[in-house]
Design brief:
Blueprint: H1 13-32, H2 37-48, H3 54-63, H4 71-105, H5 123-136, E1 141-142, E2 148-150, H6 151-154, E3 187-189, H7 195-203, E4 208-217, E5 229-239, H8 244-259, E6 265-272, E7 275-284, E8 293-294, E9 298-299, E10 308-317, H9 319-323, E11 336-343, H10 344-352, H11 365-368
Parallel strand pairs: 1-4
Antiparallel strand pairs: 2-3, 4-5, 5-11, 6-7, 7-10, 8-9, 10-11
The structure holds zinc ion.
């Protein structure tokens, strides 16, 4: 039965205590029964509402009706009672809010799960890793170096003296505001991975066999075959009695491993400041099989109908380069070596039949998904 405020006739201390206790018990039971916002409001109005609330009724019935001698004690007990009722109403309010937020956090296990896309190797990274693996099987290890380089490592120690015209072939991006520094200490974005050759020879004594993958930068406006940022992989082998025959044998094996065992290779003379003699290496076109024609008659574009595709530059390490690291065991009279370098992005274009380099760097998932 719902609680209603009784009239008090006995104002003795035990009778007051019993009446107060009964009132609080009733309030606590009703507070615990509150299940929604409407019930909370009804509960609140019933107990502390200004018009017909139970607290105003208690004021009216218990205090005003008290005999003179009992007014003071009754006042103290009623004040305590009010405080406890207020507390119960507050408590019911807080309990409701907690119940709401718990409901919001509850997981509906009948909903379908969230599918998170799995990443995949970028075609350039994939091509880099494939090429690195080819050389790792031959006993080469991987070396890396900084992208922001000094003029010394990028040019001077690779036999590009200051004012040498070969520097003009690499449109270099220099870091601004370094005019006060000596030229060899000025910073730039490396134009090739070759500085890592010198950096490695400074720390490791011969013999060495390394491959160097990495990003390089040149001041080339972006188009279908150029980008201001691109990727190279470079190799260096130094030992006693390394000959041009070792260079040809190694690279011929590596290209067959990478492109397939039926490609042929060909070397043509070239020039690089840090190798002497130097060569460009071609592989027979793996798209048209070297015929220059596709499907019998259509011209093969990747090899420009020549049947050959240029894949890398190489040569025997110029003795002038060894002079810079002579003190670490690279006496040009005792050691010899070969170096090679290739553009990874171009190999990826050829391998996957992509006709615009920019696709690789625009981050368009619709394009990149094809390689996942
Ligand atoms: Zn072809």
């Amino acid at each position: 039965m719902a609680y209603s405020v009784p009239k008090l006739t006995d104002y003795s201390a035990p009778a007051l205590a019993a009446a107060v206790g009964e009132c609080i018990r009733a309030c606590a039971i009703e507070a615990a029964a509150v299940r929604n916002d409407a019930e909370l409001k009804a509960f609140r109005d019933r107990w502390i509402g200004r018009k017909n609330g139970i607290l105003p009724q208690i004021n009216e019935l218990w205090l005003k009706g008290a005999p003179k001698g009992a007014k003071r004690d009754a006042g103290i007990r009623v004040n305590e009672l009010k405080a406890q009722i207020q507390e119960l109403v507050e408590g019911a309010h807080v309990a409701r809010e907690n119940a709401d937020s718990a409901a919001a956090e509850r997981v509906d296990i009948s909903l379908p799960g969230v599918r998170r896309p799995i990443g995949a190797e970028h075609p350039v990274v994939k091509t880099t890793n494939e090429m690195v693996r080819v050389f790792q099987k031959l006993g080469y290890s991987v070396a890396e170096g900084p992208v922001v380089e000094t003029d010394y490592y990028n040019f001077e120690s690779l036999n590009f003296p200051p004012n040498h015209p070969a520097r003009d072939t690499q449109d270099t991006l220099f870091i601004a505001g370094q005019q006060s520094k000596p030229q060899r200490e000025r910073l730039l974005l490396r134009t090739h991975t070759s500085p890592v050759q010198i950096r490695t020879m400074e720390t490791m004594r011969p013999p060495i066999r390394i491959v160097i993958p990495g990003t390089v930068h040149r001041n080339d406006p972006p188009d279908a075959s150029h980008s201001p940022m691109f990727h190279q992989i470079e190799g260096l082998a130094v030992d006693t009695n390394i000959t041009f025959g070792d260079l040809k044998g190694t690279l011929d094996h590596a290209m067959k491993e990478f492109f397939g065992s039926n490609v042929k290779t060909s070397f043509r003379p070239s020039f690089f400041p840090f190798t002497e003699p130097s060569a460009e290496m071609f592989v027979s076109c793996f798209i048209c099989g070297g015929s220059g024609k596709r499907d019998g008659s259509a011209p093969c574009r990747p090899c420009k109908q020549t049947g050959w595709i240029e894949v890398l530059g190489c040569g025997m390490v110029d003795p002038n380069v060894f002079e810079f690291v002579k003190d670490n065991g690279y006496d040009p009279k005792k050691v010899s070596g070969f170096a090679f370098g290739m553009g990874i992005d171009r190999l990826a274009l050829l391998k996957y039949g992509v006709d615009d380099l920019q696709y690789f760097f625009q981050g368009d998932v619709r394009f990149l998904q094809q390689f996942g």
